[in-house]
Amino acid sequence: MNLSKIIIETERLLLVPISSEYSEQIFLEYNQSVTAYMNHGPSESMEDVEVRIKRREVEMEQGILLFMVVLLKDTNEFLGCFALEDLDQKIPEMGGWVKESAQGHRYGREVVNCGPIKI
């Protein structure tokens, strides 16, 4: 099932599919501080970010990944990314991050609690 067209809306947030439109913001905000306790560190180059995004777009079309960019609904400000990975496995995994300047506003909690997704 193709997951690349899903859009999720919460009270304050808009979650849209990952695309190269957000590569510069991801490159700038997915830094050492944000990734300190994560499996993957920051990308070394914009080219690396672009390659990762292209891979995720393909995985979303294949239905094995839901990778979303989180935006503030009122302003479209980029806040971070969240994903449901390994959707073809028995136990999928959830992960995400919020840029440093947006931390402390419970955006991550809002994403996690956004309710059922209708596909």
Q: How are the SSEs placed, and which strands pair?
A:
Layout: E1 8-9, E2 13-17, H1 23-29, H2 46-62, E3 66-72, E4 78-85, E5 93-98, H3 107-112
Antiparallel strand pairs: 1-2, 2-3, 3-4, 4-5
What key phrases describe this protein's structure?
single chain, 119 residues, alpha+beta, 5-stranded antiparallel β-sheet, 24% strand, globular
The biggest beta sheet is recorded as: 5 strands, antiparallel
Please tally the β strands and state the result: 5
Strand order of the largest sheet: 1-2-3-4-5
- Given the helix and strand composition, which structural class is it? alpha+beta
Assembly state of the chains shown: single chain
Overall pLDDT metric: 92
**Approximate shape:** globular
How large a portion of the residues is in β-strands, by DSSP E? Answer: 15-25%
How would you sum up this structure, described in words?
This protein is 25% helix and 24% strand. The protein is built from 3 helices and 5 strands, in the order E-E-H-H-E-E-E-H. The chain has helices at 23-29, 46-62, 107-112; strands spanning 8-9, 13-17, 66-72, 78-85, 93-98. The chain has a 5-stranded antiparallel β-sheet. The longest helix is centred in the middle third of the chain and has 17 residues, at 46-62. The protein is globular, with a radius of gyration of 14 Å. The termini are close together.
Précis, in short:
By secondary structure, this protein is an alpha+beta fold. The protein has three helices and five strands, in the order E-E-H-H-E-E-E-H.
